[in-house]
Amino acid sequence: MGEYRKNNHVPGHLYAAGMVYMVTARTYRKYPVFNTPEKLGTLQGVIQERCKVAGWDLRAWVVLLDHYHFLARAPDDGNIPWLVKSIHSKSAILVNRMDDITGRRVWYNYWDTCIRSETDYSNRLRYIHLNPERHGVVKDFREYPYSSYKIFFESNDDIVQELNTASRSFDMDAEDDY
Ligand code: NI
Description:
Blueprint: E1 20-27, H1 37-54, E2 57-63, E3 67-73, H2 80-98, E4 107-114, H3 118-134, H4 149-155, H5 157-164
Antiparallel strand pairs: 1-3, 1-4, 2-3
Helix pairs in contact: 1-2
The structure holds nickel (II) ion (NI).
């Protein structure tokens, strides 16, 4: 893909333009806040919209009732804390309105990981799309409407081929494995 480069001296929470990051966040106390198709669709829409507004190239995502994962490429002024904060505040306002609750804390925390190789990228891509199977939400990840799978299905035969033949075990960072 030609977009990976050595990234030797990036400390803690500085973000490098052009690098791809995986972001995982879960709800406060793992409460199943996004427990209807409408709420899942809303969260999916907020992630897409906020990434677009902030200039992040969203590559893959999955949203579930108590967490999400996404993979996105940073713009020049990429700031993950700002991006996540904007996703969390907007989705919390919308879901609280849907549930007619005021001021409920929706989100707890998040993790981000810089993707450092094409192998890592492809592992994460598979991990994200197979996630609904992993969490037992569907028997077949192709049935799950709240991930980027269908977009990849329509646009990238190689990825679909790889997913369909993918092994269901992954070598992932423990803290991301949720
Ligand atoms: Ni998950």
